[in-house]
Amino acid sequence: MNRERFISLVRAEQEPLRRFLLTLCDGDAALADDLAQDALVRAYVASGSFLGLSKFSTWLFRIAYNCYIDHCRKARPDRTSVEDAIALPSDDASDASFRYQQLYQALERLPQKEKAAIALFYFEDRSIQEISAILGIPSGTVKYHLSQGRTRLKQHITR
Fold it and tell me: What pLDDT is recorded for position 79?
């Protein structure tokens, strides 16, 4: 794959990729941007190995998900949670930025695979088969994670 083709394919997937990572990162835009940048660099370096056996977006999202998993495996004692942000004084402009705060708080409580499955299925309109390829799990397991994730989200949001 040449450079121009790679750039063209990435442009089409940039916003969905960032949205996906933003959801996984519980609304932390800076972290999501860092992970997206890392994923795009890794994808560019590996672009010669992309054989087209899956959709480019599936391949790219898999790389991004792996970047997220790598990040989660590292110790992060300095991370501020969404709940910590609630205690900060706010004005009208910052209140608008927390529009999805309750959803991110609920998503933050889900296990990683459930959160990823929910984000890909509902926010990115990915099929069960694509989610299976991105997460590296069987399609039946994706369905299970979606079901469990929905149940847990309902419990956390209705509290």
Answer: 44
CATH of the domain at 140: 1.20.140.160
Report d(CA 66, CA 61) in Å as an integer. 8
In which domain, by residue range, is 68 found? Answer: 3-157
> What is the signed CA dihedral for 114, 118, 124, 126, rounded to 10 degrees?
70
What pTM, to 2 d.p., does this model score?
0.72
- 69-88, pLDDT tens digit by residue? 999 888 554 444 444 443 44
Q: Inform me whether the pLDDT recorded for 99 exceeds 80.
A: no
Q: Name the domain count of the chain.
A: 1
What's the CA dihedral at 56, 57, 61, 63 to 10 degrees? 20
**How many Å apart are CA 42 and CA 59, to the nearest integer?**
11
| Dist CA 21 CA 19 (whole Å) | 5
- Round to whole Å and give the CA distance between 128 and 131: 5
